[in-house]
Predict the 3D structure of the following.
Amino acid sequence: MFFADHALARRLEAAEGNACMQFAAARLHAFPESGAAWIKCAGADAVFDGADSPITQTFGLGVFEPLTPAALDTIEQFLLSRGAVPMHEVSPFAGAATLDLLCARGYRPFEISSVLYQPLGNASVNKDTSPHIRIRIVAPGEAEQWAAVSARGWTHEHPELEEFVRSTGRLLVARENSPCFLAELDGQPAAAAALCLHQGVALLAGAATVPEHRRNGLQAALLAERLRYAAAQGCDLAMMVTEAGSNSQRNAERAGFRVAYTRLKWKLDRP
């Protein structure tokens, strides 16, 4: 049985930090000139994936070790020297001392997310998939197809973002320990989703369905298949991160996930 405690927070934060480090590693491999980099400091993962990338931040700050001014100096220098504003996803298990230090250093909170978890042995999603739906893991050579489906699902209302999401999708397929799943409806690519495995934790992310195929059970099928796959790989815990109070959070809770904690994202307001 899992409890929403400090030990669980360490596992969840480590899994997300690892996923972002693997993404930066995939970018560095594909684009050596990008300068993508990462460090571990005071137990936290600090990732640079570009000055404006949403992945450029830290995970696990104050959760693995007490945050000290010297450690924060190191992390800030790592990001500032690369032209990025320091940002930190901070779990409440980091403690009041971590928040106090961030406030004293000129940080402000600007984003709230819910971190959810589910023991894989108790997965309660519907596993009765329609015979019209086929779920499979894409091969490296299918990165473009998977990225195109993902981009159509994410950006149909914001076509100006399509190329950015496509390029992100290609790197997700290239990331290590991160199988990407494609859902086909009557043989047509219709939905995409990603998974990243780390030390028994399965991080679910990147789920999107193209507009014309929504409300056909594709996301439920993708969720069930990813949980089944993760359990088969020896994972005992699944997690996902959503905007606090969003439809995505409600859908996750309907599928058996529980909120482990609510997390604040902090940004340095006066470098």
Notes: Helices lie at 6-30, 69-80, 96-104, 143-155, 162-174, 218-232, 247-254.
